[in-house]
């Protein structure tokens, strides 16, 4: 990643879920790279679920939210369900304000 956002991946023991942990600031500077990285992981994985942990995301802007929606759509086209889990306060607020909780499988 060129900016401050980072992604770490881990596959569940049963091989059904690929977990991606996002950390740092997610904004215009990193959004396209994060989108492409998540989409590629979904397409390359044999997993059925891509679970993106956003508990360590300290900032998110609207462009980055759009990038996550795009990654979700690409994953869905590959037969993978992308969900967000453990939203940090900034992510939770952004998702609540935009009404994207249903899109990402969150109940806020």
Please describe the topology of this protein:
Blueprint: E1 6-11, E2 17-26, H1 28-44, E3 49-60, H2 62-77, E4 81-85, H3 89-98
Parallel strand pairs: 2-3, 3-4
Antiparallel strand pairs: 1-2
Protein name: Anti-sigma factor antagonist
Family: Belongs to the anti-sigma-factor antagonist family.
Organism: Actinoplanes sandaracinus
Care to describe what's here?
It comes from Actinoplanes sandaracinus. There is one protein chain. This protein is an alpha/beta fold and 108 residues long. The chain has a single domain (6-98), classed as STAS domain (Transcription Regulator spoIIAA), CATH 3.30.750. It is built from three helices and four strands, in the order ββαβαβα. The protein has helices spanning 28-44, 62-77, 89-98, and strands spanning 6-11, 17-26, 49-60, 81-85. It has a four-stranded mixed β-sheet with strand order 1-2-3-4, with helices on both faces. Helix 1 (28-44) packs parallel to helix 2 (62-77).
Q: What are the main properties of this structure?
A:
single chain, 108 residues, alpha/beta, Transcription Regulator spoIIAA, 4-stranded mixed β-sheet, 3 helices, 4 strands
């Amino acid at each position: 990643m060129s900016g401050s956002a980072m992604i770490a991946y881990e596959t569940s023991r049963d091989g059904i879920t690929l977990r991606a942990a996002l950390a740092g600031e997610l904004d215009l500077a990193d959004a396209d790279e994060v989108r492409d990285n998540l989409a590629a992981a979904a397409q390359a994985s044999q997993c059925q679920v891509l679970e993106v942990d956003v508990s360590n995301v300290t900032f998110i802007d609207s462009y980055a939210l759009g990038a996550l929606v795009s990654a979700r759509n690409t994953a869905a086209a590959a037969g993978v369900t992308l969900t967000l889990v453990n939203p940090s306060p900034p992510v939770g607020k952004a998702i609540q304000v935009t009404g994207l909780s249903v899109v990402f499988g969150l109940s806020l």
